[in-house]
Structures are given as structure tokens and as C-alpha cells.
Amino acid sequence: MYYENCGQKSLDSVVFFKFCLVGYLENITSDRKLVSHCSLRLDILYFLGYDIDEELPWHSTLSRTHKLYPESVFVLFLRLLQQLLLWPIIL
To answer: Count of CB atoms within 10 A of residue 34's CB?
Structure first.
């Protein structure tokens, strides 16, 4: 949702954490660089659920969304990622 005729659309929490995952895996710590990087990669656009011609959220939207969650959420997110990356692959 967004404020009538001005302002930015809100960012879905699932999409936000997908951005976080991309930033972690691509070793990108800047929101500005992350949005720029994602806009250039078709595979990442597909993963995020955006079309080629669809505009990505502004970097400030990512920053503001980041501030909505307590630090403990991101610590848990990183721990879960590390466990999944170290999980043995069973075929």
C-alpha cells in the first residue's frame, strides 16, 4: 500500500527477506548497491518475483523496512542461513 498519489509502495516482508538473502549470498552490504545489482540480473529478478520492466523498490525503502525489524530477527535469519548452508546434501 502507499499514500494516495505520493510516496512509495510498501515492501512485502517475504520480498524484503529475499533481498536480504541475495545481499548475503552476493556479499553486498549497501542497499543502494543491492538494488542496482538486482536490477541487472534476470535470475534475481525472477527470484524476487519482479518482471523485467517492473521497477524495484528504492534503496531507502529497503533501509526503512530494515529498521522495522529488531536486530534479533536478523541474527536468527543469519543463523538459519548458516545452518542451511552447512546442512549435508542428501540425494
So the answer is: 20
